[in-house]
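Supplementary notes for students who missed Thursday's class. We covered one full example, reproduced here. Read the sequence, then the structure, then the short commentary at the end.
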Amino acid sequence: MLQVLIPWPQEVRIMGKPTSSDLRERIVRGVASGQSYRAMAARFEVAPSTAVRIQQRYRATGVVAPARQGRPTGSGKLGAHRRVIIDKVKAQPDITMPDLAAWLEGQHGVTVDLCPICQNCPSELPSACSMSWAPHRFRFAETIANC
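Structure (token representation):
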């Protein structure tokens, strides 16, 4: 018997999409007109807890727009070092990603993989992340011309 082993990805994380603003407004209007949360949820085919959360958000903020998702900009391990990274690349435009990671560890005690460096400074280093993996010796000189 021939067995084929298919490798599974380690873990795939996909952020859920927020309910549309139009649907949120209709749920809020329905509840305001006297309908129950469950009735509105059934009518628009969402979970009752979704209808409750939408109404709670409306009561608390006065808007039905979804809250922002994800981590706040500038947070995380490299948030405090953003300016230092940009200054280092401007001072030494031919630095490589591995060299920059080693410098961060040596000077600031921050151990980090290569990709978070690019994710932390995307506008200042525009093409660094897409070019940093192949070849590994990519230089920053072209990316900081407009900084």
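Commentary. The chain has seven helices and no strands. The longest helix spans residues 48-61. If anything here is unclear, bring it to office hours.
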